[in-house]
Design brief:
CATH superfamily of the largest domain: Band 7 domain
CATH architecture of the largest domain: 2-Layer Sandwich
Oligomer: single chain
Structural class: alpha+beta
Distance between the termini: 167 Å
CATH topology of the largest domain: Tetrahydropterin Synthase, Chain A
Number of strands: 11
CATH class of the largest domain: Alpha Beta
Radius of gyration: 53 Å
Number of helices: 10
């Protein structure tokens, strides 16, 4: 090799002649071909070793067909491109796709930008109003084989960009935007901007997972989060005015319902009180009537048993009650005549 000089090579025949001279030199040294073969075997064997990182899985194909999945650590494959290895992140690795905005600087106080992403966020509601929707989709890989071979992106991308994998992301982005626009189109603008955000989020997450499962994409949707839903900038003031009117309407309705409930509760309390008083009066009069009836029946029984004594007792009891109310009382012998001139009737009642 020391005699080799590129300046001496003028044609392919020069290369062949140089090879013949080299082979002539090693004819007397039989160990050299064995050494060369050994080096080649070692190199081929070494090329079959590969390492899978702790956060990865290795998907091995043989002649382009899936063969096996290997875990992290040192592994071996058949060399000379008979078997190829594609590295896929494990399920612990989380990917995030942003729609309608991008994170400009991550940190405790992250900075975001919306410039240039209106084509992602602008969409129509069911009542043909425009809204801007910003959201994120968080996902990971649940099946390495399906993830690698069932998506439209080329698997070779993983080989060229092992540490910056974007395979599968285009599928998630396309499906997410299509499903979000479909779901937003089923709601009115007021529902989208106010009380239906959580319902929309759950529907989008469910439909997105169902679509990915239908394609056997090997992707698990961990979360869908609506970051912001608002009217387009040109009509923002009008929407804000509408929202303020809606809030005022809700406030007035709430105050009216509160006043209504207060009056109704007071009326119900008064009615309940009157009902209780009426029931009490009813019970009192009923019990009194029953007592009077019982007393009368007892007296009637006594009267029937001894009329003279009962009659006299009734007379005395009645006179006792009457005389208590008389202020002046005159007791006169029944045989006395002409007593009227002695009584000053004008002074009051007298007996």
């Amino acid at each position: 090799m020391a005699d080799f000089n590129w300046d001496d090579i003028k044609s392919p025949e020069d290369i062949i002649n140089f090879g013949k001279k080299g082979m002539a030199k090693i004819k007397g040294k039989p160990y050299i071909p064995i050494l060369i073969v050994g080096i080649i075997v070692v190199m081929i064997g070494y090329s079959g070793l590969f390492t899978i990182e702790a956060d990865e899985l290795g998907v091995v194909t043989r002649f382009g067909k899936y063969n096996r999945t290997v875990d992290s650590g040192l592994n071996f494959k058949i060399p000379i491109n008979i078997e190829k290895v594609y590295r896929v992140f494990k399920i612990q690795k989380v990917f995030t796709e942003e729609f309608g905005f991008r994170t400009a600087a991550a940190g405790i106080r992250s900075k975001f930008t919306r410039d240039g992403f209106l084509h992602e966020s602008l969409m129509l509601t069911g009542d043909l109003n425009a809204v801007e929707v910003s959201w994120i989709v968080v996902f990971n890989i649940k099946n390495a084989e399906n993830f690698l071979f069932n998506l439209k992106e080329s698997a070779d991308f993983l080989v060229r960009h092992r540490r910056n994998m974007r395979i599968g992301h285009a599928t998630v982005r396309d499906l997410s935007q299509a499903i979000m626009r479909q779901v937003i189109g089923d709601y009115s603008v007021n529902e989208v901007l106010t009380d239906k955000k959580e319902e929309i989020r759950l529907i989008v997450k469910t439909k997105l997972q169902e679509s990915l499962d239908q394609y056997d994409a090997g992707i698990l949707i961990a979360e869908v989060e609506l970051k912001d839903v608002q009217a387009p900038g040109k009509v923002q003031d009008a929407f804000n005015e509408v929202n303020r009117a809606e809030q005022e309407k809700e406030r007035m309705i709430l105050e009216a319902e509160t006043s209504y409930n207060k009056v109704i509760e007071e009326a119900k309390g008064i009615a309940a009180k009157k009902i209780l008083e009426s029931e009490g009066y009813y019970e009192e009069r009923t019990n009194q009537a029953k007592g009077d009836v019982a007393a009368f029946l007892a007296m009637l029984k006594e009267y029937k048993g001894n009329k003279a004594i009962t009659k006299k007792r009734l007379y005395l009891e009645t006179m006792t009650r009457v005389l208590k109310k008389v202020e002046k009382k005159y007791i006169i012998d029944e045989d006395v005549r002409g007593v009227l001139p002695l009584l000053n009737i004008g002074e009051g009642s007298a007996l």
